[in-house]
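Appendix B. Extra example for self-study. Work through it before the problem class; the solution is given directly after the inputs so you can check yourself.
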Amino acid sequence: MLDKHDVPNGAGRLQSLTLVPRATGLAAKDFKSDQEVRWCPGCGDYAILAAFQSFLPELEVPRENVVVISGIGCAARLPYYVDTFGMHSIHGRAPAIATGLATTRPDLSVWVISGDGDALSIGGNHLIHALRRNVNIKILLFNNRIYGLTKGQYSPTSEQGKVTKSTPFGSLDQPFNPVSLALGAEATFVARSVDSDRKHLQSVLRAAADHAGAAFIEIFQNCPIFNDDAWAPIKEPNAPGLIRLVHGEPVRFGPDGSMGLTYGPHGVLTPVPADSVPASELVVHDVTREDPSYAFALSRLDNGDFAHTPIGVFRSVPRPSYDTLMADQIATARAGGEGDLASLLAGNDTWEVS
Amino acid sequence: MTKQVQELDHVIIRFAGDSGDGMQLTGDRFTQETAVFGNDLSTLPNFPAEIRAPAGTLPGVSSFQLHFADHDILTPGDAPDVLVAMNPAALKANLKDLPRGADVIVNTDEFTKRNLTKVGYEASPLEDGSLEAYNVHAVPLTSLTVKALEDLDITRKDAERAKNMFALGLLSWLYGRPAEGTIAFLEAKFGRKPEIMKANLTAFHAGWNFGETTEAFSVRYEVKPASLRPGKYRNITGNTALAYGLIAAAQLAKLPLFLGSYPITPASDILHELAKHKKFGVRTFQAEDEIASVGAALGAAFGGSLPVTTTSGPGMALKAETVGLAVSVELPLIICDVQRAGPSTGMPTKTEQADLLMALFGRNGESPVPVVAAASPSDCFHAAIEAARIAVTYRTPVILLSDGYLANGSEPWLIPDVASLPDLSAQFAFATAAPADAGDGEFQPFRRDPVTLARPWAVPGTPGLEHRIGGIEKANGTGDISYDPDNHDLMVRTRQAKIDGIASSIPPLAVDDPTGDAKVLVLGWGSTYGSIGAAVRRARRAGHSVAQAHLRHLNPFPPDLGEVLRRYDKVLVPEINLGQLALLLRGRFLVDVISYNRVRGLPFRAAELAEAIEEVIAHA
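Solution. Structure tokens for the complete assembly:
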């Protein structure tokens, strides 16, 4: 039996940030900047921005202690529209910049906004290292499976054979599964949500905020101009392939929740009619498993055909965050007194000239 | 046996051996002994990039040159008076640098047929008369060491490894160096391995006693202490001085120091040094790559730290985009480039000055960055503080240029009085609120200080100052995204004007022109300061009038530089590149300067530079 208190439940105070006074009474409008939002009509980014802005008051962190950092791409414009501190930086580098900020300022709630090209192509290295280090940053990857700002080239998440301007005969690359990648980098918090499902997206944002350390959220986002309906098969009401993960509950999906998962050979998860096996053999979702293999197996259910696409929190395990460990090292070193510049400069081997 | 003592005013010793022979350690210890003795000194470590190249081969030779004197000196010396060669490769690789009559101490044990063949000697140079021009001391260093250690419970291999301490003992005796420091050093270094400690101490003493008793050395030398400025001294390398300068700058600015870095030769020692000093609150972040290291530093700058990244040429190339972002968002950032021979990987352990134009111009768009260069190993300390001053005062990235020679070279340093260092905290303040006269009361992140043109440094956590910055062009004042043509023109010019304006905070160029009638000026920058100084002294001793000046600030230049250049008939600009400063001077001042360039991965020799100076004087 799982103890509900062991996992971030999103109820109440942000657990990953305790240094700043609680800010109550904020509303979504307080997080709207005076800048005109300039995404294409119908872009999924609008929905994500609105969900983010109306979620931020729940953090109960003062606006001045929230920082949103992005790289380059359509998604990367988001910081301009949020009335907090923000930086629109360099293609792919936002996790690195956010690492420097979060590592030096434990009083800040730092959010990274990225896209599939930004996070997985040019910035792939920074993404995996930020996750492995477990820096206290929350990374939102808006995945639309296409390059939007450069007008429609295939991306690292585009399906193989994708015909675009840069691949008139079809793309040759095997796409990344972002959740598998994050789990492979040993991220301590990995989740997935959908731009159009505000309630679900906000529940995942909440859980990410509660997590002390790096959080990775892939958000299925629609680009109506260059890759419209890329996620259509799982956006239909009661889409048969959509698997909503709920911690502590059996994984059920399909018509009337008739399907479940069992453990197959070699650790793979196998979809089965729930009534075809004893209830005890059905997988109960557990985000707290230390070994990422289970979460990885969940992520592999999704092989590109939308037959089985889990959303929700895949993994959420406690591990000391990088910034905390660094602060601890400094505190330990300074416990015996702070450094003295004059004695540092002199060192141990001096001589006098008179 | 009483030995004759001969007094010398200076000596240049080069220790050379296999990469695994411990030559750098031997050189370091001899340097420390020499420093404590009170000589002035200058060092030049020279080692291969490969950690352990095949033993006994020419590419595997590692050397350490030390120049010490009873007067103040400026360079590690042109040609060694004494070569200690631990094997045939070390002899062969270094012999061409030796003047006739130099002393050569060779480890005869390593002159086996196999080792000789490895480096292409058909006959042993010890026997074929090819070393007749030198004063050869043939010493079986290895077997003497092994014999001295035969009572110890160690392997033959460990005994052989102590031969560098035997050599150090011998040289310490030969030049009357104090031994206490080395003994204490060995005791501390091998405290946890008593047998190895004993082996090294015994070898050191055996070497010393060998000098005293053998007839191979009939003369002992004495180099009296130098009369340096009174005060407390230590020996320091450029990388250590640079690291200390950064720690000092952070204290002086009352800011936490953040270093983002990725290991790269010859800059890594700055990371190693700073990583030790957590007591000063220093945060060091070894990033996944060069780009992340400078990115993290910029993130820390946004949060109000004193941000630093350290690297060498190839890393500079990778950091360029982030430096451009720092120019655009106008945040402080110190980028230390410990230059090495390029292009590409080049020669990682060898020095060069060829990143100057990259520092000035190596970014897209109009992207002005102040550039500061250190002149000597200890000067790296003050250059780092100056770089920090400019960065925090003007909210700009600053490139601090050092190089491989400064990084690893060392010299005695008159330890500065902390109270004499500048108060950097007086140069800036974090913004705390939107200024009352800001119109609608909205905070304007790009509203500038009228004097410095710096924008407010408004760190997250400050209520009311929430704002967004980024690499897209910003409207003057508000910082909102702007594609307005005239605004872009204004911002391009304003960013340039801010950097140009730094010149008003730079002291006039100091020109050393003792006779006042020199027609030739020698102008340098960076690590050539010592070589140029030594060459100018030679020229003056030969009866010539010549002026010398050295640039710390490469961008912007000191305000009076043009006037100084025009005061002289000829201006000679020696550089370890193909004329990068010369190009800038010609372009900026229309002065037809004369370049002198050698790009060998080594500092200039004072003699060759003196010749070049005399030639220019002859035609002036």
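Self-check: Residues 248 and 367 of chain B are 28 Å apart (CA to CA). If your reasoning did not lead you there, revisit section 3.
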